[in-house]
Amino acid sequence: MLFNKMLLFSSMYHHHKVRTANCMLKTIFEIIRDGGSRYKIAGRDFSRAVDFLYVTDEDVLTPVGKRGYLRSYIERINRRELFKRALVISKRTVKTHDFRYTELTAAHTDPGRLRRLRETIAKRAHCPVYEVLVDMPEGPSFREASQMFIRMPSGPELPLSKVFATDWWMNAYAEVKWQGHVFCPADLCRKVGPIAKRVLEEEFDVEVLPGAIDECSKPDVAS
Fold it and tell me: Which of 119, 130, 136, 174 is the most exposed place for a label (fewest CB within 10 A)?
């Protein structure tokens, strides 16, 4: 089960198309929040968490009843016009001694920091902040290994984490498979990529290699 979980994270949950779709869906609610009373879905402005309980997927993704930028954004999702990779952050694209996996993934839990990063990139690229998405996902968790006990041939029961190197697996994932991204519409990639590279270098005090942009032109494979 743990092995399959690792494979699912690398091939599905963290695949860049899944991540960009997830970021675009979250941006729908960001647009509503920033728009004040201009934008609502099913009469809800999502100023309260309970508002999410009153809408369905159809309410969110149907352009009917929406207006302005919110409508056009939702229509892009319906047409499968997902944002493309402008920059790829990984162990391969950041100078080895500068790669700070935990600091990068910590940004995932700080929406304010990600918003400021996006605003800086968007301002330099002269585009709306909603056209620049920064994604630094958290790695897989292996809590199951500490919650599952096995009976040894002799002696007391032990948690699986004592006999199975889950820490090594997590480190290996961070080293080999983890990727962060900067996404934007296809026509902005050439402009946003180099700008995002400079902004991330300033923010995280790292040296981002040219491969961070070159990776974006590779064929779409689940890697």
Answer: 119
- What CA–CA distance (Å, rounded) separates 85 from 184? 7
Mean pLDDT in the chain?
A: 86
Spatial distance between the Cα atoms of 157 and 155, rounded to a whole number of angstroms: 7
> Please, what are the domains in the chain?
2-139+178-217 (1.20.1250)
For β-strands 84-89 and 180-184, DSSP reports them as antiparallel
- Per-residue confidence (pLDDT) for residue 19, from 0 to 100: 94
Residue type, 186: A
Nearest to 8 by CA among 166, 173, 199, 171: 173
Distance, first Cα to last Cα, the chain? 20
At 130, give phi and psi (nearest 5°): -70, -10
Q: Where is 123: in which H helix or E strand? A: helix 111-125
The string of DSSP letters for 183-200 reads EE-GGGHHHHHHHHHHHH
Strands (E), the chain: 84-89, 133-135, 149-150, 158-159, 180-184
Determine the average pLDDT of the residues in 38-55.
92
